[in-house]
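Researcher: Can you fold this with nickel (II) ion in place?
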Amino acid sequence: MGIRTVREIGDELLRKESKPLKEMNNRTRQLIRDMFETMYAEQGAGLAAPQVGILKRIFVVDIMPDGESQPLVFINPEILETEGEVTDNEGCLSIPGKMAPVPRPERLKVRALNEEMEPFTLEAEGLLARCICHEYDHLQGILYVDKALTEPVEASE
Ligand code: NI
């Protein structure tokens, strides 16, 4: 495989709830590799499995803190706690070229499984917390436009 086609808003699959992943196998490992490849190719900070047509509770994130790649895989994630609220512009590879302001928690604690199906918890804030919430929403069939304060507008470069 490699770079996969990203589904865009209007595609009914993006509105479905994804199902928990029961076990890791080679097919899912390949999916995760492809999700990273697709996300980097499209210059996104996160990508959820339903965006590439797979209704499984998996997302990948890399916000490149300090310009360094820091790839994170979240399988069957649960957001345990949130705190505060920040509104900032948000975009999505499934809504190309657009952005809108979305309120999100300032901080959160998330529990998930990694690629080895080992549990971990992570405390995140700022852009990483925003990204985790956005990708988590994809697993619920929610897009950022559902929560945005205004209609999305053309993103300026
Ligand atoms: Ni998105």
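Model: Folded with nickel (II) ion in place. The two ends are 30 Å apart (CA to CA).
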